[in-house]
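Can't paste images in this forum, so I'm doing it all in text. The chain is below; anyone willing to post the predicted structure tokens underneath?
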Amino acid sequence: MKKIYILFLLLSITAFLACNKDDNNTQTFDYEVKKNNIIGDWDVTWVIQEIRADTLYHESAFDIEVTFNANQTGVRPSGLVDSVSFDWYYQYEPERVIEVVRQSSGPILILDKPRIYRIIKNEKDKQIWEFTQESATGVADEFRHTWKMKRK
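Text version of the structure:
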């Protein structure tokens, strides 16, 4: 009886350790799949909500095109110049993309604070991301940005 108990205990431990090993492999696979989902050319509807006193004051939307390259660089339009180059970094848990805009020629200079996008949906042909931005003038509480992305 004691041998059966020990055998059962060893089998339980082995099964437990095997499950943990599979979970780590799945997580690594999911990271690569989710990161690779981002790479490519996207049509983006950019929705901006101006929030004042915890209430939606104004909403606007416009369409842009954004490119995310496999070498973790990208290009998107900017209000200051025709387009800006950026480096992007993917984080798995919680799922985020960090964008660092840089000067396109000469020494690398960071032009703005990095944007941290919270990923709402990460699928091969559809993405939804959000980020918030403080008001520069203090008139609004914040600006909420939503990117609704469809693969080109």
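The mean pLDDT is 82. Helices lie at 2-38.
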